Amino acid sequence: MIHLTLYTTLGCHLCETLEAGLARLAGVEYCLTRVEISEDEALLARFGERIPVLVDAAGEALEGGVSPARLAEWLAARGWLDESAWQAMQGESEATQESGGAVSRRGRRYLG
């Protein structure tokens, strides 16, 4: 099992998105420790504008607005990526831009 730390704060949608991506893309069992930065002035000063910040046991960090591709790359570099989940996620996110700002995803049309 790997140990990861997520520096986060309550209501951080980017953090929630990162956690959901991690749950889907991690090909290994992991233990995630969430550290609430708003309760500590030093952590708030250090991580306030950088969250979400995901750190592995070696201290290597993935930070900021993390896209699925960046998360997949970070996990793959450590041998932790579930390749089949990543392929499925890429297939789901393929979108075509239509005129007028609409986007089609998997046969459904969404307005921009």
Describe the structure.
- This protein is an alpha+beta fold and 112 residues long.
- The chain has one domain (2-110): Glutaredoxin, CATH 3.40.30.
- The protein has helices at 13-25, 41-47, 68-77, 83-93, and strands at 2-8, 30-36, 53-56, 61-63, 95-97, 103-105, 108-110.
- Strand 5 and strand 6 form a beta hairpin.
- Helix 1 packs across helix 3.
- The longest helix has 13 residues, at 13-25.
- It is flat, with a radius of gyration of 16 Å.
Q: What tags apply to this protein structure?
A:
112 residues; alpha+beta; Glutaredoxin; four-stranded mixed beta sheet; three-stranded antiparallel beta sheet; 4 helices; 37% helix
Give the structure's gist in a few sentences.
The protein is α+β, with helices and mostly antiparallel strands and 112 residues long. It has helices spanning 13-25, 41-47, 68-77, 83-93, and strands at 2-8, 30-36, 53-56, 61-63, 95-97, 103-105, 108-110.
